[in-house]
Protein: Cytochrome c biogenesis ATP-binding export protein CcmA
Organism: Halomonas cupida
Amino acid sequence: MSLSLEARQLACERDGRWLFRGLDLTLNAGDVMRIEGPNGSGKTTLLKVLCGQIVDVEGEVLWQGEPLRRVRSELLANLLYLGHGAGVKAHLSALENLRWYQAISGDQVSSRDCELALARVGLVGFEEVPAIQLSAGQQRRIALARLHLTPRLLWVLDEPFIAIDAEGVAALEQLLAEHARRGGAVLVTTHHALERIEGLRSLRLAGEVAAA
Ligand SMILES: Nc1ncnc2c1ncn2[C@@H]1O[C@H](COP(=O)(O)OP(=O)(O)OP(=O)(O)O)[C@@H](O)[C@H]1O
């Protein structure tokens, strides 16, 4: 399936300040786009606008060429969104957290699939440990395991590298590049340079007119 997410002349004001204005963006299959900018510049806000979670903005977002307000359910069916926090349930184990994610995403996966996904993010031996007893990086890895489990074309990842060690950062960069090579697309906010990702596209938010 081809993939097209487009923003036209987006403008968002918060507290009398333009986070972005005149922002044009296109994301197609095979793209990895990094959204960068200082704290408070509007990166998370932009991701939420592009996914239809925030609608009080000017301009238009199109999914597969159609206005997002009309086709949001189609976008959601193709979207894997990992938010700024790790988003794990503290008193559920790593495995239970994945089962819970899969239950709300509506995907049919086995415990074995979940175990394999946890293994892919380096959590072998931690499957049954309550998340509250895991480190910040390990909790983030539970969330990242969903990238191996939930098949979606569009990955929108808000600061996925937080608390991840150098080896994990390299593995995640490789995973993003592979997803794009297989025909997916990735929008990612991060302060990392993502130098390993060939053809990386970047959009910097600094309260100015922007295009990507
Ligand atoms: N619901 C809201 N109501 C009013 N202002 C908001 C709201 N959400 C965010 N803001 C403001 O919008 C600005 C951008 O916030 P946002 O979280 O998008 O920034 P960010 O670039 O992702 O920041 P960080 O790098 O710190 O995560 C901030 O100044 C914030 O205070």
Notes: The chain has one domain: 4-211.
